[in-house]
Amino acid sequence: MLKTILSAAALAAIAAAPAMAQEEPQEAATKVSRPSAAFARLNYSLQEDRENILLLDLSNGQRVAIRLMPDWAPNHVERVKTLARQGFYDGVIFHRVIEGFMAQTGDPTGTGQGGSQLPDIEEEFNPMPHVRGTVSMARAESEDSANSQFFIVFYPRFSLDKRYTNFGRVIEGMDAVDAIARGEPPRNPTRIVQASIAADNRPAPSPSQIAASPRPAITAADLSAPIEE
Asked: What are the residue ranges of helices labelled H in the chain?
C-alpha cells in the first residue's frame, strides 16, 4: 500500500516550531533499554569496516560517505545495504528537501509515497541524537512502517530523537549534502546516481553517467498499477 512518509503537516510543524515538536510526548523513549553510552561510537575512518560505509554518488558530481551503525539499528542497516546492492537507489531523487531541516530520498516514484517491495521494518528507536549529518529512516504514522526512504539532517533536530530510527552519520561529503537542491519536490532535483557499499569497491560513476538523464517521470497510472508477482 502506498503511504506518505514524513507528511507535509508533520514536517512543517517540526520545521516551523521545533520547540513545540520537542514538547510532544516521547512515548517511544521507554522502548530504548540501553543508555546512549552503551551504544557503539562512530568510526570516521573511510578505510576501516568498509562493509558498513554507504557511498552515495550524487548528480551534483560529489560523493557522500555514510557510516552505517548496525549496533544502533541492525535491521535498518541491513535493509539499506540490501537495497543499495540491488541497485534500488540508483537514479532515485531527493524528493523533499527542506532548508534548515533535512533532505529525504529513497522513493523510486519520487512522490514520497513509494518504497521497495520488501516488507516494512519494525522500529529500532535508540537514544542517538539527530545532529547535523544524521541519517535516519523515514516512516508513515505507524512506528513500524519504515521501508526504503531515509533522510539526512542539515541541523540538529532533537525532536526526532526516539521517534525515528537513527542508523548512521555522514562521515565525509557533508558539503555535497548541503548542495542538494531544495524543494518539495525540487524543480531540478538532485539524484543518487549510484549507491554502493564501500567494501564492494564499485567504480565511481563516470562524468557521462552523472550527466545522464534521470529516470522517466512516474505517472498516476504507474502508482495505481498492480504489483507484479
From this structure: 8-16, 18-22, 74-86, 174-178, 207-211, 220-224
